[in-house]
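Can you make up a protein sequence with its backbone structure tokens?

===
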Amino acid sequence: MASNETKEHIKQEEKEQSPLTTDPQFSYDLLRHALLPELLGKEEEAILYWAGKSIARKEPLSSFEEIQRFFYKAQWGVIKRIKEKKHEALFELSATSLTREHAPVSLECGFLAEQIQLQKGFITEAAYELKKKKPLVFEITVRWDHKDPERTDS
């Protein structure tokens, strides 16, 4: 029977010979914080906003709870509705460790705007601002106009 020291030595060798483990955060960082800004340039925020709206149209959700679950699954952070008025709603996005302070959250903002538009039936726009740096929190304001119904082309 092998001694404990020998077993530990074998385990260490197996670790050194095994393929490297993957790091999803590294992959995400490369795409979101290195590649996309380079490809999109000055138009990054606008393109990501409209991309978020496009994703929302492909993934329509019927409740705010579903939106919260989607944000969690997408690793976009925790989204909370702070307050809602007749023509606007205020949300708070507590970012994940994947989100960087200087990076735009316009993808998330566009997604939220389109989901609210689909649920309310009125043209909706959203804007965000950095609320807190530690922990990283963004405030997203979504506005709609009851006089401007969503156009549904069949």
Observations:
- The two ends are 74 Å apart (CA to CA).
